[in-house]
Write a structure and sequence with these properties.
The chain contains seven helices and eight strands. With about 230 residues, the protein is an alpha+beta fold. The protein has two domains: about 5-70, Winged helix-like DNA-binding domain superfamily/Winged helix DNA-binding domain (Arc Repressor Mutant, subunit A, Orthogonal Bundle); about 80-230, GAF domain (Beta-Lactamase, 2-Layer Sandwich). Helix 1 crosses helix 2 (about 25-35), helix 1 (about 5-20) packs across helix 3 (about 40-50) and helix 5 packs antiparallel against helix 7.
Amino acid sequence: MAEPSTRTVERALQLLGSVCDAGSLTLADAARGTELSASTALRLLRTLESAGFLRRDDDGAYRPGLRIVQLGAQALSHESIISLTESVLERIVLATGESAYVNVRAHHGPGGGNGLYIAMREGTHSVRHSSWVGRTVPLAGSASGAVLSGRTPETGYVVVDRGVEADVTAIAAPIAVQTHAPDGAVTGTRVIAALSVVAPSYRMNPGKITAIGELVAAEARKVLAAQQQENQP
């Protein structure tokens, strides 16, 4: 009996997500990681390949295709948080020379326990943190994860040394937006993203961490101010 169409779509999306998360997967690894039979995985992978969502290398491994790249770029272009943080990221990099990121809570996966990097500006140092746009990281144990989980201390920023990566220090602050009652009255703010600097730990010291933390927190507050100004009649 043929499986329901919704189940087929679910399996295809699961395979697509696995390949995108890994960057490249063989048929065997894709089938194993999604607990599908090799024949089912091959059928779905070929369908995704024919639609342009995946491409196959000369060695037979599957990678994200141009169609998924195009859709991702189109989706990001409609995210207002990205446009609001463009100048903020540029100022942080100019002031620190370190890579700066915007991270949001991922809405997929068990419990939504990951953060997703959606924007960045690469640092200017010869040794710098390279782009993680599109990559997810666990909320637990990361500076941006603490911010997205509402655990920002009174300093206004979170510091995690050697958390997600060895020899890397991350400093993050919350980006918030206004919340409104049904009648339009402002009721408070809600954290929607984390603004962070990610740098090699050997370049960090207590004084520099404090300076960067205060800068990131101040720039994160400017995003809220810009959003408030946009919403003014």
